[in-house]
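Pinned message: reference record for Flagellar P-ring protein
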Amino acid sequence: MFRYLLSIIILISTCFISSFTPIHGSITTRIKDIANVQGIRDNFLFGYGLVIGLQGSGDKTTFKFTRQLAKNVFEKLGVVTSTDDFDSKNIAGVLVTAKIRSFAKPGDRMDVLVSSIGDAKSLEGGVLVHTTLQGVDNEVYAVVQGPLSIGGFNVGGKATDTRKNVATTANIPRGALVEKEIPVHIFHENSITLSLHDSDFTTSLRLMEIINAIYPDSAQAVSAAEVRITPPQEFRTMDRITQFISKIGELPITPDAIARVVINERTGTIVAGENVRISTVAVAHGNLTITISERTEVSQPGSFAPTSATTKELERTTIDIEEDEAKLHVIPDGVSISEIARALNVLGVTPRDLMAIFQAIKKAGALHAELIIM
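Predicted structure (tokens):
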């Protein structure tokens, strides 16, 4: 009871002090939103199967894998057959993939993705036959079966066709049934480890201090990405460790971040963090436009021209050069990203121009941030 009251007092004091602390641009979030417990993760499953019921849009007979797969399915049902018996194009071989979440129990359902591996034109209207899904350890963790949903179509004739979305990839919503639970290990040597989504030494240290304020001497910042926590004695059981992780995840924290400017040259997108700073720099930017036009002129012989004179075509090229006036603007030292944007907007530059300006400022050594070009 005393520990519970002490935790409430510390939380109230933290919120009261932080409300009067002028941290420009900082945000407060929960620990669970910036870190995860090691051992809690999704896993990928895969398998291969047979899709039936296609209207002539399946694999051709030259794709022998599908015929062999169909033969195996019918042999399990006690039917003696050969690959030559399957000469229609109503079946297709597919690869089935799925993502199983942590703590999934037998009987839970999940979505699966079905992709053609042969030369089928479309999986529209098909039904996936009973298929097992296994993990990287070759153990079967789920089974899937059901009608496919492609969310589109692929129709046409001999001259042309019309397609919406990809008809050789389909989904089966909640089509997989979990058969075996994947074990989750989060408690190692009486401790758990939190992994930051974005590695940062400052954030790691803040995380350690916040947890130690509630549970003294329980957290240790191992690296910029990991904080190891030793729960108090009363939480060191599997039924109480869930409560401990829940309490830790709800604690408030102000994460730190490295100053970055991210430029996507394909889309013309520029994203800059709040901690971006520059030294005093002068920027001049102007556009140079060169227009080249070509035209053909016809030269006719004059009235008194000799009889050997003929009509000729002459190529004429005109080059116009136009350069906008560029003014020199001085951006002062240590301004924030909002002030940088305001100063650059005075130049009337486009996002493409901003990319060139940021790269030039970085090369000049005046941009104190990491420049990432995608």
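Pinned by admin. Summary line: The helical segments are 2-18, 64-76, 201-214, 238-249, 337-345, 351-363.
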